[in-house]
Every structure is written in structure tokens, then in C-alpha cells.
Amino acid sequence: MSAQRQETVKRLAAPDIFARKGKAPIVCLTAYTAPMAELLDPHCDVLLVGDSVGMVVHGLPNTVGVTLEMMILHGQAVMRTARQAMVVVDMPFGSYEGAPEAAYANAARIMKETGAQAVKVESGPTVAATIDYMVKRGIPVMGHVGLRPQSVLVDGGFKAKGRSNEERNGILDEARATAAAGAFAIVVEGVAEGLAREITETIEVPTIGIGASAGCDGQILVTDDMLGLFDWTPKFVRRYADLRGEISRAVAGYADDVRNRRFPGPAEIYFAKAV
Ligand code: KIV
Question: Hey, where are the domains in the chain?
């Protein structure tokens, strides 16, 4: 048996996250790569392999072009270094909105090929029945209501939701249906403050907010946003670092050293053995 197989890995799982409702805030961040997952893991309860990987890592304009294969590849990378956080993998656009049987097959493929503990789906009006179908067959599912990035082409952009009474009630209904279908947690994205609080107080499963105020049971951010890797971030992001500036300074220093023959220096080269 390999050393890797002998090592005991005990990650948080869906029931642990579910049980946190009303107790301690749930800390979540996105992760797409092995080295980043290793850094985030000790501090987080949930690492989400979000389909935002399409925009953040692959430079796509939105998440619509993300494939099942991309999610599996990034899920495998994160699982190689996550040790205690629960790992949730997003189901990409087109992989779960049709027949529940097809959604189940795709979710099962994600779980088998990555080893992740759950999948996440954007909970549109027709998706509750699919969540129910998957949960009853052994797949822990995280829901996602409010701003649903996979619907950006229908919505005409990334716009905050729940500002009109009609939209508010629709989102509240979706959250209720998602919870009733058996989701163990629900991401609430880009909604007005009062709505996030109302959803959180109404349903029994934990809510995880992004751009949804402190009225949720936990919070998630896109890691690259909070580390300051982009020149622009949405209003709801707090930047905890300026890695964009750090990287620019580091690369400019390297380029300057190479151009001026200061790199590599004596400490950075191999010498022949004395004979
Ligand atoms: O894909 C993603 O990163 C997400 C989070 C923004 C919640 O769904």
C-alpha cells in the first residue's frame, strides 16, 4: 500500500456543515489548484471548486463554457492537497438542467473521479426535483440561489437580485424548494441584505453568502478576488492582499536582473565537483 493511501485524511462532510447552522460561521473559499488548496485548507471549512475557474483561470467571459472535464481536472487537483476542509465541486452549465438521470450520472462521475464530498448546482425553478433525485441516491448537494452566474446570458449580465417584490418572493421560494429537496447548504449570491437574512431565518439549512450581507450562516469569496489578483473586483469583495502588485513587482525585478545579468548569481548555480 502506498504511503499516500496509508495516510488518514478526515475531511469535514455534508452533515458537519449542516450541523453548523446557528452555531459557528462557515468559512468557505474557492480553490482550483493543488498548491492553493494546500494553503487555504487549514483555514477553511469548505473549499469550492467553483465553475468560476472558467473566468478566473481560463479567461472565459462567463461560466457557460465550462465543461465537466474541466471541473473534474480541477477537482482532482484540489483533492490532492485538501486535508480537512470539505471539497465541493460545481456542476457546470448543461450537466444537470435536463433529465435527473443525466444529472445524477454526471454528479456520480464528478464524485468518483475527484473523490470530492459533494456537488453544487444553481437552483433554478426546475432544479429542485433533480436535487431531490440526486440526494436520495447518495449525492450530497449544495444549492445556489439569487444571482446565478450560469444564467447570465438570459439575465443580460451579472446583476444583483431580489430588489423587486416579485424577484424577492421568487428567490425565497427557490431557497425553500432547494432546502426541502435535501440540499445540505445553499449559496446565496448577489441579493439585497434583508433577503439573505430572511432566507437564513426561514430555512433549516445553512446559507453561505457572497455579496449577500452578513445575514448568512457563512461566507464565500472567490479567492483570487480577495487576494487582489485582479485590477477590478465587485463591490462586495474585501481585498485582504495586493498579490497583483506583489507579482508585478517581483516579475519586474526578475526581468531587470536578467537584462542586467544580475541573475543568476553565484548562489544560484551548480559548480562542478572538485576532482
Ligand atoms: O463558481 C463559483 O466560484 C461560485 C461561488 C462564487 C459561490 O459559485
Answer: 14-243
Give tens-digit pLDDT for 4-28: 555 678 999 999 999 999 999 999 9
Superfamily of domain 14-243: Phosphoenolpyruvate-binding domains (3.20.20.60)
d(CA 46, CA 29): 7
SS3 92: coil
Residue nearest to atom 5 of ligand 1 (CA): 50
Question: What percent of the residues of the chain are helix, what percent strand, and what percent coil, each to the nearest 5?
Answer: 45, 15, 45
Q: Give CA 192 to chain center in angstroms.
A: 21
Strand (E) or helix (H) holding 219: strand 218-221
**Residue to substitute in 26, 27, 51 for testing ligand 1 pocket (most ligand atoms within 8 angstroms of CB):** 51
Q: Return mean pLDDT, the chain.
A: 95
Work out the burial of residue 72: count CB atoms within 10 Å of its CB; fewer than 13 is exposed, 13-18 middle, 19 or more buried: buried
DSSP one-letter code for 178: H
